[in-house]
Amino acid sequence: MSLSVAYNIARGALAANAASASVVSRNVTNGENSNAARKTALLVTDATGGVYVAGVASQVATALLEKALESASASGQSVEVSGALRQLAEFIGDPELETSPAALIGAFRGALQAAAAVPHDATALQGVLSAAERLAASLNMASDTTASIRQTAQESFAQGVGELQTLVESFSDLNREIVTGTALGQDVTDQIDRRNGLLGQIAELVNIRTQTRADNDVAIFLGNGAILFETSARTISFDGSAALLPGQPGSLLRIDGIPQSSGERLGGKLGGLLIVRDEISLQVSSQLDEIARGLIVATRESDQSAVPTGGDQAGLFTYAGGPGLPPSGAVTTGLASMISVNANVRPAQGGLLELIRDGGISDPGDPRYDYNAASEPGYSGRLNQLIDSLTADQPFASSIGISVASGGVLALATTSAGWVEGERSSSSADSEQKKILAGKASSAWHSEVGVNLDDELTALMALERSYQASSRLISSVNAMFDALLSAVR
What we know:
This protein is α+β, with helices and mostly antiparallel strands.
């Protein structure tokens, strides 16, 4: 080997050393960046035996990245569902809560029992009226709260769709830069780190799958197979201006104008919001509406004539469609928000408390609905009848997602509260579990491809030894050149 070749080899080694040290320095800088993959300088040996840096490569763990993205999506969905159920449970999930319809039906029944013991006592009848008003207000509030949760989910969904479009467009710009840089042989590892970060943010919004192709090109698909990005960003839209109709699902996410699956199939935060908006909220609303119908039916008044000619009418509890009863067998959408205590028993509105005891609430001017025709102050028959009617069997719509074999409206309210609390408890546990899984999946990916400062310190020590060896080689070559020149002189 000639001295000039040896000198070039040593000089090339120093240059490769400097480039490798620069890569290690970048790794150390990215030590706290959860999206950064460890970079490695690619050393290549040339024909003379020297080395040079041909490029920079990132650690790759595609399967772990896919698992991390999937876990992030599942966690994002469960967080939204759990949060909504927690809010609902605060109003109706615990039968012991003062705001719970189940608890207030029990309190209303207790007030009726107290009044039946002293039917002549106006204070006891006032207690029944107060309990009835609290019960109606509770159903109104629960219905309004459910509608508010649904509207909030709609607004959050619209905002999330806008975020998704922005992220996909940013991904498109970055992906184009990566593909072009790869084709030109440029170092695009930092851009790939940023692209992985965008993938993580997108996965939090929707469930995605990715496919890596030539020149580091990546395509993104939704969990249902719809293309979210391939070469160019797809148009993502949502008709946020469309009003939410009571009892009806809302608008869906659209990609290039095509509506996508809702709920579980969409996944991520957006999928969770659709589950809240179109499944949980609607189901709870329908249960509340059936509880309201059950109360109106349980307190209805019938024609007391020897030969009845009049139909049943809404009594103590009524609604906008009274005095007729709401139809059975199907949910009357919005009934829980409309139920109220009949003004005919409210003294503040000119009503008479005694009608709670005597009947005739539906139409005080029609004697056919008067249960206490003799106007006896000690009459308790109607009050006892109302007590029994709260637990008397009733048919309820099968579409509300729960069934009650017996126990009437009180059992329905209790079962509904139990359903909400059960869903909340299950969802909360599921959310915590998926948060843990998402954290573990992310940690596993980062452990595989991320920066370990101990490894970088070891690499620096190796580079230091390499630098020292190259320096000694250059010193030796210089000494040989000096000796050769001295001999020539």
